[in-house]
Amino acid sequence: MEIKKAVIPVAGMGTRFLPATKSMPKEMLPVIDKPVIHYVVEEAIASGIDDIIFITGRSKRSIEDYFDDSPELESHLQMKNKDKMLKLVKDISSMVDIHYIRQKEPRGLGDAILTAKKHINEEPFAVLLGDDIIVNEKPCTKQLIDNFRKYGRSTIAVEEVPMEKTGSYGIIKGQALDDSLYSLEDIVEKPSPEDAPSNVGAIGRYVFTPEILDCIKETAVGVGNEIQLTDAIRMLNEKQKVYAYKFTGKRYDTGDKVEYVKAIIDFALNKEDMKEQIKEHITGIDL
Ligand code: G1P
């Protein structure tokens, strides 16, 4: 079965970027001229997704506005003959079919995904967390979809993370099947380095069979008093094999300030109209 639907939870608080995120969702922080969430949606589309379900919460209205038509802005640009800009703005609202579900209370990532159950309708689906931008010719989500096609089983993207950072990730124990594929043996949410079964972490891209939703339903409150997706993945793995896939690509965790700045620098250095000036600026910095 083809994977056409993606769930993108955007209900988190974004406390690491306060005060900027006091009145603006963290997913709307720009990397040059596009908000982070735009890159995530682009990855989904480039992976073959044509139906996106955003799980939103309080103060996420600007995300809806961003992907909506904007008649006033469009007529203004038309009047000023700014055709290129007009096309850019119009393209955003016609990118993909988007639906919004509001998570009334933030009860954890697992709970957020479960709110999409009706819309998912017993189909396999992808999940993309809104913080990471992953750059690769073949998008990370597409890599997972291809593994799903091969084995017909849920596949989660993983990467080796610094041992001292295991407390920020779902950490797996896996049996390596080849250079990039693990058969999942266990997954633990945010263990301390001493308790971590490895330093291989889930990075926020998943492809699931619909059975994950039944597992989330049965999942009790876990770490941080939240219904954890990680706990539901462990349960799913007991019923139906789950794979972990070491994706190819460069990941920027834009929810982290240093990574966010690195993303901006790298993206600027990749833009023809900016790169020379930015290079000149960087080489001129007195370190
Ligand atoms: C979530 C998941 C965690 C995963 C991480 C990836 O945590 O709970 O298992 O490794 O995303 O970014 P969060 O970053 O929302 O705290």
The distinct bound ligands, ions and cofactors come out as: 1-O-phosphono-alpha-D-glucopyranose
Outline, from the CA principal axes?
globular
CATH topology of the largest domain: Spore Coat Polysaccharide Biosynthesis Protein SpsA, Chain A
Strand sequence of the main sheet, in spatial order?
Answer: 8-11-9-10-12
| Beta-strand content estimate | 15-25%
Total of domains: 2
Specify the structural class. alpha/beta
Q: Name the CATH superfamily assignment of the largest domain.
A: Spore Coat Polysaccharide Biosynthesis Protein SpsA, Chain A
- Annotation field: number of helices: 11
Report the strand count: 13
* Major β-sheet profile: 5 strands, mixed, barrel
Based on the structure given, which CATH architecture of the largest domain is correct?
A: Alpha-Beta Complex
Order of helices and strands: EEEHEHHHEHHEEHEEEEHHEEHH
Stretches where pLDDT is under 50 for at least 5 consecutive residues are none
Mean pLDDT: 92
> What is the CA-CA span between the terminal residues?
54 Å
- The share of residues in helices is 25-40%
Rounded Rg: 19 Å
In summary, what is this structure?
By secondary structure, the protein is α/β, with parallel strands linked by helices. It folds into two domains: 5-255, Spore Coat Polysaccharide Biosynthesis Protein SpsA, Chain A; 256-287, no CATH class.
